[in-house]
Specification:
By secondary structure, the chain is α/β, with parallel strands linked by helices.
Length: about 525
């Protein structure tokens, strides 16, 4: 194997389109890249996804690969999910955390893995094992199972084991912990100042336990930890003391270490994506991820090859990574499986899967305050919802549709919906409008960052009519509304979550979730 093909095995690359691009074909043949990441831009129908993954594997075989490509995706479920129509909507981490039942996390993980495997995707970049103990965290939040290290550990471990049982490789993220940040590493470099005792007591607990349970891969965080890295502003991804010293040597992890995307601003705007890839390999990672730009993908491989030729990185260091990568590829893939899922439509997104997951939604969606005054069959109901807003860059915009109105109209005969953009127009008196109805339901989305949403609820309460607040992403919204009739947390604005909460509001089902975080 040529040096360029050797270091190429250490690259995970993304591309545009629902069919194989010429750029990705070039990377497969010229550099034998080890992994491909799929995003929403690559996702069509289940049949189109399978056709894409099969074509990528056929190209890899033609290029002389010994083991199939590792094809990965961020299918965390909830607010971060890439699969589209025709697949099952599966609850995200915080909703699962609200069930307080690790066996449910295992069931959701297994179904996630089964559908991914049927589509030819053999590696999931999940579960998130970050402990979300910072209500102001802009990038983790409901992607976490909760704020308690032991509960996060049990839920994450079972989610991981479920996916593994389904034959899909898993990834713990984001090492050594991204839960207590107030900065999004897509945009800048977060800093976590906790000492070693605190890190071992909180952030590292889920990683340690999941490693002991057989973790496949771990993704590094673009976060700076002064307690772990002496050189100022060096993120964990580029830190030899974090990747090799802590993760490999102290915690004894022998699986694959991958970076988060190296085009994120915490890396790209500081030392640059290409140099960052070299430094990450020096630190001890196995896979560097360059998700978007072909030029940077190719430059990263060439620069890593130059680093080996110059002696900056030893060829033995590259060989160690290739051995770990190919070991997992042998465990989770085989050429015999390719083209083996001709009838995905009969399995993926089936009614049976929907019904199984609906039961989990009932276990996780949480009534924070209540029971309050129920909606009566004859009530005129006003549903007020905000325009879509995205809390995190990592969210897939294609799925951000607020469908609560149509779900509520299915189960209650008299519903009028009203969308409010960033603020209520000056000539609209919400108290007066609310007076025309018998019951008000208002959805909140990032109310902690939006004073206008909070004022809107206050104006509706002033009407004297019962007001139910449905916090459709952040459960921390609940702390702002002590005077409302009921507060319900869905943790995600997926169609399945809305289906269940609409039935609950109409008195047709019960919800049993418990908050996995503390509301101030």
């Amino acid at each position: 194997m040529s040096l360029q093909k050797k270091v190429g095995r250490l690259l995970i690359a993304g591309f545009k389109g629902i069919t194989m691009s010429e750029e990705i074909k070039h990377l497969i043949h010229t550099y034998h890249i080890g992994g491909i990441i799929l995003f929403g831009r690559n996702i069509g129908t289940p049949e189109e996804i399978l056709a894409l993954t099969n074509s990528l594997q056929a190209e890899a075989k033609k290029a002389g690969y010994e083991t199939p490509l590792l094809i990965c995706i961020d299918q965390e479920n909830g607010v971060v999910r890439r699969l589209g129509e025709g697949t099952t909507i599966i609850p995200g981490a915080m909703l699962l955390g609200a069930t307080d039942d690790p066996s449910i996390a295992r069931k959701a993980g297994f179904l996630t893995g089964k559908e991914l495997k049927a589509l030819g995707i053999n590696w999931n970049l999940a579960p998130v094992v970050d402990v979300n103990n910072n209500p102001k965290n802009p990038v983790i939040g409901v992607r976490s199972f909760g704020e308690h290290p032991i509960k996060v550990t049990e839920m994450a471990k079972n989610s991981m084991l479920g996916m593994q049982e389904a034959g899909v490789m898993t990834t713990l993220k984001h090492f050594p912990g991204h839960g207590d940040t107030s900065v999004d590493s897509h945009l800048d470099l977060p800093v976590i100042d906790h000492d070693l005792d605190r890190l071992h007591a909180v952030e590292l607990v889920p990683f340690k336990e999941c490693i002991a349970a057989g973790a496949d891969a771990i993704m590094s965080a673009h976060v700076y930890f002064p307690a772990l890295e002496k050189q100022e502003n060096v993120p964990a991804t580029l830190s030899h003391s974090v990747i090799t010293g802590l993760l490999r040597e102290e915690l004894g992890f022998n699986g694959v270490i991958t970076t988060d995307c190296m085009e994120m601003d915490a890396i790209a705007k500081r030392i640059g994506t290409v140099e960052g890839c070299v430094q990450a390999v020096e630190a001890g990672v196995d896979f560097v991820m360059v998700s978007h730009l072909h030029d940077l993908q190719e430059q990263a491989v060439l620069r890593m090859a130059e680093a080996v030729e110059s002696g900056r990185i030893s060829e033995q260091r590259i060989d160690e990574s290739i051995e770990r990568i190919e070991k997992l590829a042998r465990n989770y893939t085989s050429w015999e499986e390719i083209n083996g899922n001709k009838k995905v439509a009969e399995f993926v997104g089936s009614e049976k899967h929907h019904d199984e997951m609906k039961e989990i939604y009932k276990q996780g969606i949480t009534e924070v305050t209540g029971p309050g005054i129920p909606i009566k069959a004859e009530d005129r109901v006003l549903l007020v919802h905000p325009k879509n807003e995205y809390a995190m860059m990592v969210e897939d915009k294609r799925y951000a549709t607020l469908t609560m109105a149509e779900q509520l109209k299915k189960v209650h005969g008299n519903v009028v919906s009203m969308q409010i953009d960033k603020e209520v127009p000056g000539d609209v008196n919400m108290t007066e409008i609310a007076g025309m109805y018998d019951h008000i339901v208002v959805l909140t989305l990032n109310a902690d960052k939006n004073e206008n949403q909070r004022q809107l609820v206050d104006d509706l309460v002033a009407s004297g009519k019962p007001v139910d607040v449905v916090a459709v992403r952040s459960p921390y919204d609940a702390s702002y509304f002590p005077k409302v009739n009921r507060i319900i947390c869905t943790y995600e604005f997926t169609e399945s979550a809305f289906e269940v909460v609409a039935e609950f509001l109409a008195g047709q089902t019960s919800i049993l979730g418990r908050l996995p975080v503390t509301i101030g």
